[in-house]
Amino acid sequence: MTPHFLFIIIITIYIADFLFERYVSFLNIKSSQRPIPSILKDVYDAEKYAKQQRYFQTNARFGMITSTFSFVVVMLMLLLGGFAWVDEIVRSFGFSEIFTTLIFFGILLLANDILNIPFEIYDTFVIEQRFDFNRVTPKIFILDKLKTYFLVGLIGGLLVTLIVWLYELTPQYFWLLAFSVITAFSLFMLLFYSDVIVPLFNKQTPLAEGKLRDEIEKFAQKAGFNLKNIYVIDGSKRSTKANAYFTGFWGKKRIVLYDTLIEKMTPQEIVAVLSHEIGHYKHRHTLKNLAVMLPSNLLLFFLLGIILKSEIFAQALGGQQASFHLNVLCFGILYTPISTLLDVFNNMVSRKFEFQADNFSKSYNLVNELVSALKKLSATSLSNLTPHPLAVFVRYSHPTVYQRIKRLLK
Length: 410
Hints:
The protein is mainly α. Helices cover 72% and strands 4% of the residues.
């Protein structure tokens, strides 16, 4: 295979992926105008439904613009040899392979973020503001950006440094060692994300004593769930949308409620939402997701280890010799079809897990409360109640609210 032929394959994959995503979005836009199922008629009144349609259409058009912009930028970089040009610049500094790789990816990530900042500003301060969701101030926006740069630079830089060092140390076993590093990091984040990362962006406080905590603890005791860590997060500092989630396992498991969720739901509805989260724990979904993820990561690093040894992949992007960063970039595009199939499979598994967690709530006679909570969550976030089946199949990690409520009421 010649570098030119490989370049054609890269371009073909990238264009095909873009066109497929746009086709799914087009179907989803058309589907959003279908009549709402009868069991969801009470989610929106006429005025609220009109607002939901405007919100969805606005986001759909904006998503089309941003994705097309990103596609054009990357296509220009590919066709005009932009990645090879950046490679030449960083190689001219004469640094080691590790520092060259760090600078290369640093330049690309920073340039990409700078290009996308205007879109982020418009999304946050125009679209979300127009539909009464935004609570982000310019100060919070800037601080979030700076904190994100710090985390990406620190954590991403350390991981890249370690992975490149492992490749230089032992190319033959690089794939296995790199897989081990990423697995260890994933486990660390599962256990300590709420303790290490979340506090940089949000304040978490233990749920205060009172009726809500009493109801939650009473249900947890009934369900045989040893619950010590119930936290409230100040999600209202950024958005009016409500949420709740379960994180961690073993002694680090934690349930987190958004303050906006507490504002908008009754104690029994919140208990129903938490029963769903406890259902995930009872079914060991966190560990099962990890078990699904590990083979995917192993395959990824095995294939990457093969590609890193060849010069043809760097040459396909205009480089003169094999380099870790150009080969990784080339691999990232070539891996897209496999990644898409794995994402679809992971979403299928995730949707199955969501139904199981709903059934756990159902087993404790919390159907009406969970149905009411799901409807309120949909209404407060102006969710699309009629997504296209292909969009659900490809993109959704959760079943639609219609599918969930239909199952619950069955």
